[in-house]
Automatic annotation (TrEMBL):
The modification 4-aspartylphosphate is found at residue 57. This is Stage 0 sporulation protein A homolog. It holds the Pfam family HTH_18. It comes from the Bacteria. PROSITE patterns: HTH_ARAC_FAMILY_1 (PS00041), HTH_ARAC_FAMILY_2 (PS01124), RESPONSE_REGULATORY (PS50110). GO terms for biological process: phosphorelay signal transduction system. The lineage of its organism: Bacteria, Bacillati, Bacillota, Clostridia, Eubacteriales. Keywords: DNA-binding, Phosphoprotein, Transcription, Transcription regulation. Signal peptide: none annotated. GO terms for molecular function: DNA-binding transcription factor activity; sequence-specific DNA binding. CDD domains: REC_YesN-like.
Length: 520
């Protein structure tokens, strides 16, 4: 523990000894670093040792205690002054207050209990100032927001330094990433990250912000503005949120979500209220783009649980198995209603959407269709529930259309062969290798393909490769020779020749047209 460094100044040696003994008897974090018998000696001592506290007798020869206190004030020294007097004179006390002394005590009233209490007060004040000079308002508020323990005296110091920290309002803003539910990779360049905090700080004065505090990927905005009525506060918060979204939007790709707390709060309430606001922000972020919500924390009643959620995975599977295009829209609307009513967190929604995505992929695999990522369907890029459901609507309609006229495979061995090819067609595989891997003859495998698929083994492998190449051409920036290698061709020239045979276009033409005029 750091010690409070003390100096005693008195023209009576006995008075100095008496005070020294009482301080040492307290046995606290206090150390006497010097004594002086007059004001001139004391001034030299103070300049040399720069103590934290000086106990100074008022009546001294050469330089009085009040004159010495004035020199300390004029030189802007950080030493706290405790004036000590044998006489209870109001005029001395008044002059001392004007000079900014921290305490005025009478010699005959100084006892171990009162001195101990005084030193404890001085140490707490000194310790608080040591901490607060090290940390800024921003760092202290950041610690409070994130649940770190901050001493009460430090909070009080900052409230005194910033009157608006007695009570203030908060608003949280978050830049939302796309909802991740598909495992398909993307080779498109990602947008450069945007420093939302930096943008907000540049607008700090314009928005009358006290501080901008990072919190789990979001940002907490503290501002101070009193309101005369509930309606005025509500109107201001809506306008304030609109302004924030308006100036962030040009710099931020994707969507923004904003939650404002309806009432003013104190520093002690800051951490739990930020946690509550962040939970609402997380749910709000997946409901719609550029969303805003006012959080009213006056009501302590728990929210009613929504009714039993509809089994969205079963709805999707039933929709696929029915294969009725006219039913797709209504089925997917039911899924959207269920997801919206579920009040999911972002991670919870992503888990449900991943289940739907895997169900779609599983259906395609059972129908011997290539995975979604090898088709011309756009890569999922949804920021909210409605956008995710729109993607599934398009994917389901596309999948049902693909199954029209599709040959139904009944042979278990052929199903195994098709699954094996889906996993290995990017390699240099042959009909013989596949047959041996599955434990039957190459001739038998060829017969199965002709009987149930009306295709040869090579024609089916070629179709798989071209389907995957189409995806790369439309959805990535990979070069044609890279795509050729990724789909299992030795040279880009041979790949381009086969691709044109299958589609009527070169790979470059197909990419330029965005996959349109596609035969598959």
């Amino acid at each position: 523990m750091k010690e409070l460094r003390l100096v005693i100044v008195d023209d009576e040696e006995l008075a100095i000894q008496n005070l020294e003994e009482q301080i040492e008897a307290i046995n606290g974090p206090y150390r006497i670093v010097g004594t002086a018998r007059n004001g001139v000696q004391a001034w030299e001592l103070l300049q040399k040792v720069k103590p934290d506290v000086a106990f100074i007798d008022i009546k001294m020869p050469v330089l009085t205690g009040l004159e010495l206190a004035k020199k300390i004030k004029d030189e802007h020294m950080k030493t706290e002054v405790v004036l000590v007097s044998a006489y209870q004179e109001f005029e001395y006390a008044k002059q001392g207050i004007e000079l900014g002394i921290c305490q005025y005590i009478l010699k005959h009233e100084v006892g171990s209990a009162s001195l101990s209490k005084l030193l404890e007060q001085l140490w707490n004040k000194w310790n608080t100032e040591q901490i607060t000079t090290t940390f800024s308002v921003q760092s202290i508020l950041g610690a409070i927001v994130n649940g770190a323990y901050v001493q009460s005296q430090i909070k009080e110091h900052f409230i005194k330094a910033k009157e608006e920290l007695k009570t203030f309002s908060i608003l949280m803003v978050q830049r939302n990433a796309p909802i991740h539910f598909a495992n398909s990779g993307s080779f498109l360049e990602q947008p450069s990250p945007v420093n939302v905090e930096e943008i907000l700080i540049r607008k700090k004065e314009e928005l009358h912000l006290i501080a901008v505090l990072p919190y789990h990927g979001a940002h907490v905005l503290l501002f101070h503005k009193p309101f005369e009525s509930y309606l005025l506060r509500m109107g201001f918060l809506q306008q304030y949120a609109d302004e924030i979204i308006a100036f962030l939007k040009p710099s931020v790709q994707g969507s923004l979500s904003v939650v404002a707390v309806m009432r003013e709060i104190t520093l002690d309430e800051l951490s739990p209220i930020v946690q509550a606001a962040y939970r609402e922000l997380d749910k709000l972020s997946v409901l719609k783009r550029d969303s805003f919500q006012i959080l009213n924390l006056k009501e302590d009643n728990p929210q009613k649980q929504a009714g039993s959620r509809m089994p969205v995975k079963e709805i999707l599977i039933h929709c696929l198995e029915e294969r009725k295009l006219e039913q797709v829209s209504s089925r997917l609307n039911r899924i959207q209603e269920s997801l919206t009513a579920g009040k999911y967190s972002r991670s919870g929604l992503e888990r449900v959407l991943k289940e739907l995505y895997e169900a779609l992929q599983g259906f395609r695999k059972r129908q011997n269709l290539p995975p979604v990522e090898y088709t011309v369907l756009k890569k999922p890029d949804a920021y909210c529930i409605s956008e995710a459901v729109d993607w599934f609507r398009e994917a389901v309609e596309f999948t049902i259309s693909e199954t029209e006229g599709l040959i139904h495979v009944t042979s278990k061995k052929l199903k195994e062969a098709l699954a094996y090819i889906q996993d290995h067609f990017t390699e240099s595989i042959t009909q013989q290798q596949v047959a041996e891997a599955l434990g039957f003859s190459s001739v038998y495998l060829g017969l199965l393909f002709r009987k149930e698929m009306q295709l040869s083994f090579l024609e089916y492998v070629t179709k798989c490769r071209i389907d995957k190449a189409k995806y790369y051409l439309v959805h990535t920036n990979k070069k044609i020779y890279e795509i050729s290698d990724h789909v299992g061709y030795m040279t880009s020239q041979y790949f381009s020749k086969i691709f044109k045979q299958q589609t009527g276009m070169t790979p470059a033409e197909y990419r330029e047209r965005g996959g349109k005029s596609d035969e598959y």
